[in-house]
C-alpha cells in the first residue's frame, strides 16, 4: 500500500543524479536538528528526510570548510556572533557557488556584527524586525505583538502553519 508521496519519492530517487544534502551549522548556539524543543529543528529535519534530502550537522570550527556534499548550508539562528574564521568559510562557500540560508532569531540576545557584515556584502540587511500577525487580535481590537516560534500552530509534520496576513515591523532603538 504505497502512498502517492512514497511513489513520488521513489521517482525522485530514481531520476535525481545525486542525493542533495542540507547541512546545518553547529557550535555557535544554532538550533539543533536533533532537538524537539522550542530551539529544535527536528520537524524540519524529518520533512527534509521525507523529501529524500540528506541532513547532517557540521561544526565549522573543527572542519574549517563546508563539506563538498552540502547542497545548502544552514546557519539556523545562532545565539552568538559567528567567529571570523566561520564567516570566512561561509564567504568562500558562497563564492564557490554554494547556497546559504541564514536564519536569525528576533530579538537577538547579543549583537552579531560579523554575520550582519557578511550578509551586507551580498546586499542583505539583517534588521531587528518582528513579524506581526494582523489577522489575530488579543482582548481588544489591537493585533497581538510579535510572533515567536512557540506562537505558531504546527502541522502534523511539525511545520509551522502559514500566517495568512502578516506585517513586518521595525523596532526602533532595538
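^ C-alpha cells above, recovered residues below v
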Amino acid at each position: 500500500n504505497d502512498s502517492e508521496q512514497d511513489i513520488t519519492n521513489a521517482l525522485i530517487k530514481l531520476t535525481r543524479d545525486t542525493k542533495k544534502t542540507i547541512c546545518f551549522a553547529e557550535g555557535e548556539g544554532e538550533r539543533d536538528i536533533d532537538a524537539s524543543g522550542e530551539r529544535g529543528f527536528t520537524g524540519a529535519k524529518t520533512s527534509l528526510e521525507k523529501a529524500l534530502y540528506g541532513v547532517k550537522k557540521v561544526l565549522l570550527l573543527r572542519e574549517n570548510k563546508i563539506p563538498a556534499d552540502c547542497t545548502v548550508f544552514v546557519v539556523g539562528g545562532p545565539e552568538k556572533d559567528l567567529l571570523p574564521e566561520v564567516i570566512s568559510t561561509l564567504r568562500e562557500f558562497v563564492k564557490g557557488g554554494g547556497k546559504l540560508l541564514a536564519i536569525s532569531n528576533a530579538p537577538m540576545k547579543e549583537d552579531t556584527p560579523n554575520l550582519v557584515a557578511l550578509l551586507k556584502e551580498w546586499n542583505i540587511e539583517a534588521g531587528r524586525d518582528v513579524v506581526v500577525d494582523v489577522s489575530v487580535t488579543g482582548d481588544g481590537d489591537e493585533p497581538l505583538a510579535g510572533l515567536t516560534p512557540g506562537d505558531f500552530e504546527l502541522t502534523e509534520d511539525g511545520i509551522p502553519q502559514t500566517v495568512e496576513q502578516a506585517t513586518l515591523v521595525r523596532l526602533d532603538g532595538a
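Residues 137-150, 167-174 have pLDDT under 50 and may be disordered.
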